[in-house]
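user: At home tonight, take the chain set out below, taking as long as you need, and be ready to discuss the fold:
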Amino acid sequence: MPGPCAICGADGATTVYTVAPKSDEIRLCETCLLGVESGPEDALHWQCLHEAIWSTDPAVQVVAWRLLHGLTEAPWARDLLDIAYLEPEVKDWAEAGLPDPDAVVHRDSNGAVLTAGDAVVLIKDLPVKGAGFTAKRGTAVRNISLVSDNAEHIEGRVEGQRIVILTKFVKKS
């Protein structure tokens, strides 16, 4: 039987989320799941972390701690992180799931995070050097690949040609 969201307590549709790298599971509402997967943005919804960080369930503490780390621009989140206490093994678990700070993050023209396999749309006509055609604005590029050493470059197939595209000229679809 579905239960309330483990982070915010919202009733309704929830999804089971596995708190990596362990196999513990918690139920999350759509808003909390989106924040966990894409990174939270400072909003009134995240005030629920004031209670979630003190949960008796270590998996909930881990997710709350990671969300607070994603909200470091918010003074209230920094303050809450300063006073939050996690048992050493729970803190190690929480830190194991944080993204690598040196990892290259690809973002589209609107700042949305791009991942391999995403579909994007060109926002500008782009002349393709060496191929003799122009990729038109509005062209969908599916199943993109990320250039691992350059956050501004992605690769995709347009008109049968595999091309490198600057991320500032695409938006995630």
